[in-house]
Amino acid sequence: MVEHVIVLEIEDESKILSGKTTGVRARLKYDLDKLELTPDHITIKFKVPTVTSSFVLGMLGESVKKLGLEGFKKKYGFDAQNRVLETIADNIDFAAADGTALPPSAKS
Amino acid sequence: MKVSEGRGPQHNSRECADQCKRRHTKKIWRKMKKSGKKSIKIEQSGFAGSILLDGLLPKRKDIWIKQSERYTDRACNVSQLNFFEDPTSTLKKLSEIIRHECTTKTLTLNFEEKTCLDMAPYMILALMAKNFNPKWIISATCTKSLHEVLKATKLSEKLNLEELKEESYPEDIWPFELESICGEHSTLQTPHALTARRFTDSVNNWLSKVEWTLTADGSDYLSKMTAEVLDNAIIHSRPGTEDKTTGGLISGASGEAHIAGYMTKRKVGNQDRYTCHFSVVSVGSSIFESLNKTCPNHTRDQINNLIKSHNKSLRSNWEKKDLWTLYALQDGVSRFKQAGGRGFMELINFFVKFGHRKEEEVSLNGVLPSQLVILSGNTYIKVDGIAPKKDAKGFWSLAFNKENDLKKPPSGKAVYNLGNYKFPGTVLTVRFELNDEYLEKSHS
Predict the structure, then answer these.
(1) Which portions of chain B are predicted below pLDDT 70?
(2) Do residues B32 and B71 share a domain?
(3) Are residues B180 and B139 part of one domain?
(4) Cβ <8 Å between B228 and A54
(5) Residue B131 sits in the same domain as residue B246
(6) Domain that holds residue B56
(7) Last residue of some domain: B113, B138, B164?
(8) C-beta separation of B100 from B135 below 8 A
(9) B371-377, strands of its sheet edge to edge
């Protein structure tokens, strides 16, 4: 099994990875759909102190849906500051719940 | 809001516009009669369409008067521009200023406020000024305190501004100057993230002047929140545009957003109180227009079914699009097929944590209550001392009723329709006192 390491860093002084568009762009840049078809493990290193929910959901939301929560946790590892790890964990759970706050009775 | 005319003949701008239009029509009839032609070419001199100006005053093109027939030396007194307290009058006043742009050569705006109660209307005025007829000359008078805010919105660059010297107001003001952010980018670095960082740095700068700083958690939280709000504003303002760098997976990334803010320090009793104001404005589509145009079918069905259940209780101060806007704010409701739609609930939670004060504190003399307002199209939503709740699945919701139950209608005081007045896009404006929990002494 090969270990793929993806390093996410940005050069400007914002030090924030933000936005669903940017997350989807990162997903495409590192070809996660293809990597997920292999048996390889993926580690993502966040070299920034701040990451927003929309970035995490844009980059990894589809992976959680595809692999399921357990499958995702086996496939991916993260190396980041604690606050970033908390944001990732929170949004992985959110993506796994796959729903909305709207009441179930309202569903068609 | 007081609306009155200052210098010049006693009449309001609507009458002025009507009078000018009547004169213009008579002149056209005379020309047609003289020339014997059934139609003549009407010169719309200097008129240029604008999403913002035409959105705030839909009749703008119809009342437009050519330069040679315009009134000169008009004045307009402006007070209580404030979406927190009086959204209808604020929109009315902004549209009235646009009426003057259509019918006068010169205008003096007399800002009567001692200080700014809401940043957003002044930001909108600054954005309006960028689109005004370049031949139109506006000058203005204002107090020193308000001048600081006008400088932050860069409105003072557009106006020939005269500062009133006699005014003094017992507070310090530190501004964050208006920044306009375009969503287009192609890397992981984003202009809105850079602005969010600068905004957080500004808040820290403001606090450092009084030997305080945000905690690391506070700084992280504020940066994330500002970035999320700007990103939301950008992608909602142009929902139909495609982002090629994501293979068409995401749309709306080419929109624009504008942010400005300031902090004030005031003495309340023996204590210094720090109030943070910031506003984000995006011009283009409203939240309803954006979500309704592009959301997945299951989201549309879910919202429509929920609205149907409220049909019996729909009152005159709501329309369906107001409920669409309310549901768009709830966790998980997104325009995209991918998981998302967390931004608004995170923002409201941030606002509650960072600035929420107990009622007894708010009622202290001179302390401004924390408030957050979302104005989108003609839907008005005010978050005022009410917190979202988390359900068993972990989704946050805010129903604006006592039970926090989305199956029940929201309070008509918190969510309502502004009728004929609308903003072409979305305005988010926030005012809160910084919670001590997220502050620490800068030397510690």
Answers:
(1) 1-29, 31-33, 36-45, 163-171, 183-186, 239-254, 311-317, 337-339, 355-368, 385, 435-437, 442-444
(2) yes
(3) no
(4) yes
(5) no
(6) 3-164
(7) B164
(8) no
(9) B171-182, B256-268, B271-283, B423-433, B371-377, B379-383, B415-417
Q: Which of B142, B164, B186 is the last residue of a domain?
A: B164
In a shared domain, residues B81 and B61: yes
Nearest chain B residue to A92, by CA: B339
Query: What is the CB neighbour count within 10 angstroms for residue B149?
Result: 28
Cβ pair B298, B335 in contact under 8 A? no
Q: How far apart are CA B211 and CA B203, in angstroms?
A: 12
Q: Are strands A50-51 and B415-417 parallel, antiparallel or unpaired?
A: unpaired
Q: Which B positions 24-83 lie with beta carbon below 8 A of chain A? A: none
Distance of CA B90 to the CA centre of its chain: 10
Length of chain A as a residue count = 108
Task: Flag if B339 and A26 touch (Cβ within 8 Å).
Answer: no
For tokens 């429509």, the residue is B304
Q: Give residues with Cβ within 8 angstroms of B385, minimum separation 6.
A: B356, B359, B362, B369, B370
Instruction: Give A71→chain B minimum CA distance, Å.
Output: 17
Name the DSSP class of B71.
B
What is the Cα–Cα distance from B299 to B291, expressed in whole angstroms? 9
What are the tens digits of pLDDT across the range B46-95?
788 999 999 999 999 999 998 888 888 889 999 889 999 999 999 999 99
Total domains present in chain B: 2
Q: What is the pTM of this model?
A: 0.84
Asked if residue B151 and residue B241 are part of one domain, the reply reads no
- Residues of chain B with C-beta less than 8 angstroms from the C-beta of A64: 339
